[in-house]
Amino acid sequence: MTDLAWLTIAEASTLLRERKLSPVEYVEALYARSDRYDDRFNTYLCVTRDIAIQEAKQAQEEIARGEYRGAMHGVPYGLKDIIDYAGVPTTAHSKILRDNVPGRHATVTARLKDAGGVLLGKMATHEFALGGPSFDLPWPPARNPWNREHFTGGSSSGSGAAVAAGFMPGALGSDTGGSIRAPASLCGIVGMKPTYGRVSRAGVVPLAFSLDTVGPLTRTVEDNALLLNAIAAHDPRDAASTRVAAPDFTADLRKGARGLRVGIIRHFYTRDMQAHPDVARGVDDAVRVLETRGAQVREIELQPLEVYAACNRNILLSEAYAIHEPWLRERPGDYGASMRQRLLSGAFIRAVDYLQATRLRRRLIDQFNDAMRDLDIAVTVSSMDPPGRIEDQEEMERTYPRQARNAFNVLGCPALALPVGFTPDGLPLSMQIIGRAFDEATVYRAAHAYEQETEWTARRPPIA
Amino acid sequence: MASEDAPTHAETERHAQEAGLHHLTPEQMDEFARAGAYIRELLAKLPRDLAVTDEPAHIFHADEAGR
Prior knowledge:
The complex is a heterodimer.
Chain A lengths: L8 H9 L5 H19 L2 E4 L1 H16 L11 E5 L26 H8 L3 E6 L33 H8 L5 E6 L5 H7 L2 E4 L19 E6 L2 H11 L29 E4 L2 H6 L4 H16 L3 E4 L5 H26 L6 H8 L6 H21 L5 E5 L11 H7 L6 H6 L3 E8 L5 E8 L4 H14 L11
Parallel strand pairs in A: 2-3, 2-4, 7-8, 7-9
Antiparallel strand pairs in A: 1-3, 4-6, 5-6, 5-10, 9-11, 10-11
Chain B lengths: L8 H10 L7 H19 L23
Helix pairs in contact in B: 1-2
């Protein structure tokens, strides 16, 4: 049998359904790999071995009885450690919540349990999904499987690194200013920030109420759509949850690129910021691939990146401060320095600045919707640079804001990061495909069409 | 931003007290000052040309993203 570490969700679910693979055997193979290698990459904060074995046995018995539940039945996954699983600590990678044990599952956890998924563990994050990478927290930061001296991207760092390392086929992360797409980009995998409101945040430690989203990280586009199928639905526990029905996100996967109308947002990485040449070339080459497969491509113009960034940070830091103010007042020393400094920024934002940013967001959404009126998707860079060296503070500070992700948190639309190549040193390069609100299916269609023409998602990091 | 616009140490300390941040160490007070400088830079990039006729501030709701 194929090395179980590199099975896709789609492959695994076929084997599981046909009883050619036992869920227990699958879990044990993945744990054997992470037991051997995770001390290099620090992806896990908590290994939930007892839960995994119990859930895998249950899946095995159900499948044997013919009670197959669907694509996630018996499939292992990880949760960013801001997402609750009842009885397992949710620490947010912070001393502040070290002893926090939720009594109830997050809605996304409950949905994965109902789908027959198997929880392998809780994954490293930047502190409270914002501060990092940090070396002054109770646990070390995750490391990049392609080269452990390099940054994973954050904040869903453990989720991204574990999927890239072959420790699990999929994991959930959260994205408020790019935190699913950054680790997907820097770890060479696929990460989807769904439309705001598409996936419930109930039972997920908030960072910024009006920007937070939860979404999947996987090694392939199809797997990403399968995982989103399992978690997307209306949830009365989340006030922002949409009533727009979730379709089958795999339905359009094989329709190809022919006829897709693509807008390329080139000024984000040529004028507003200058992307590293390898990154720019990767995106431009990817667009040419879509074009040769029948897509119609034209350049579009949006507001400068710094306008989106200012809007995103203003809203994010205000809302985060509102959440953290009591702890900042009473326990400032229990945060890592990176998180504390970012949070303290919120004390300087006036009510009028926050409110003007929310009005500006409305205007930016209208402008984007106008630009997308005769387009199916837009394409641009994700990170402006290849992964930097994680212990080089100067490089981290320089590259951290050099990204084009938080624009799409402001806009609320779906945005997916996927690999478009590697640097000469073997570090991943990535681009974003952006869709109209609630049209994740077309984003997946374009991404899958590109993926089928390239071999990037089939590459493996040099771990063993 | 120009250095002459930067608040004095005393002003930063007063701001922290007014915000109820009574337990900051001297090093954390330095972080607080750097956070303030960051926000002043950030706010300078926020467009100020919103008109009275622009929409009022409101709670952002999921379904509005696709409006």
